Amino acid sequence: MLQQDPNAEPQITRQCFRRRYPETDFYEEKNRDKVRNHTYKSAIEYHADNIRNKVVLDLGCGTGILSILCAKAGARKVYAVDAGTDIASQVANIVDANGLSHVIIVVRGRFEDLEINEDVDVIVSEWMGQMLLGEDMLLRVITARDRWLKPGGVILPSSGTLFMAPFTNFERYCEKVEFWLDVAEIDMSPMISFTEQNAFASPNVDRINDENLLADPQVVKHVNCYSITIPELMSIGESFSMKTLKQGRVNGFAFWFNAEFTGLRQEEEQLSALDRMDSALVLCTGPSVPPTHWEQTLIYFPTTVQLERGRPFTGSVTLTQPTKHKWLMEIKLIYRSNNGDLVCKKQTDLFSPF
Ligand SMILES: C[S@@+](CC[C@H](N)C(=O)[O-])C[C@H]1O[C@@H](n2cnc3c(N)ncnc32)[C@H](O)[C@@H]1O
């Protein structure tokens, strides 16, 4: 029995995950993320043999940190490209301050308009956004790969994996909702249904931990940066059957990703999913590892679902970018409960400003 029409239009208005590029906070938050910085640094140092004396393209260089790491790893030339004019002028100063102007060429503008007369050996980028695909930067990595990467060239990170698991977060839910019962001794309870409709309507970026997970995570999509195509990204669909670890009320699904710095294409293709997760060169953003600025993305259901321990939790997930509104990602979850199949639809702005 379907309780909601699966073809109904999502009721959510345009909302985005969180911060946008021009905000200084956006770069500060990234640069403060030690897990992110450390993993990129280790990966670039580890792959130094593929970088030394080579030409690198840093796609969406932001503050230039990845360009500088590549220059320090011995790159002969680094094209540091960013469309944010304010940030690109800062990069030039940062590069100067680090005495690397002879290696790093800072290019202000959209990389789609970039004119370089040579192919590159390495593409480095921090393209991962919320639910892996937020920020819409992977599309740009694919375009750059097809346009400039030499055969046998390296892409860092080389792949990404999106995971999902049902979570319970009842305390957080109550805290947000019950707060309205008494605000400076004023009854604001009419705000409760407003909060329920709005605060949990679009994907929430928040931190949970292992305790919040009710089932084993499942892979939604593994993206190999050497072979993924743009049409493949426009519609991702996966059915799931998760082993329930404990009983409890599910508030929704948590999503997070890993970015893997495997290296050369043949190395990426030889790895099993398990080897990939075990590798030290993985940037993990899940609930059971040290936190990153990506935290987790939580999709709240309209009503909670009771899970029984040992019973599989089944359903399907689809992530679609409509051709009409490429800036949008539609998230559709179908999941089985005691009352039959339930449908939860959300949409979010991928925020790709350029
Ligand atoms: C996630 S940030 C990169 C952060 C950077 N690695 C750092 O650590 O500061 C992505 C960057 O891509 C840039 N960007 C987005 N679309 C672009 C495009 N089409 N061409 C060039 N840069 C783009 C944004 O301005 C933003 O600075």
TrEMBL record:
Q: Which residues form the Protein arginine N-methyltransferase domain?
A: 159-338
Single GO molecular function: protein-arginine N-methyltransferase activity
Which keywords accompany this UniProt record? Methyltransferase, S-adenosyl-L-methionine, Transferase
BP GO terms, sorted: methylation
Q: Which residues form the Methyltransferase domain?
A: 56-153
Q: What SUPFAM superfamilies has UniProt attached to this entry?
A: S-adenosyl-L-methionine-dependent methyltransferases
Q: List the InterPro entries.
A: Arg_MeTrfase (IPR025799), Methyltransf_25 (IPR041698), PRMT_dom (IPR055135), SAM-dependent_MTases_sf (IPR029063)
Highest taxon of source:
Eukaryota
A Pfam cross-reference name? PRMT_C
What is this protein's record name?
Uncharacterized protein
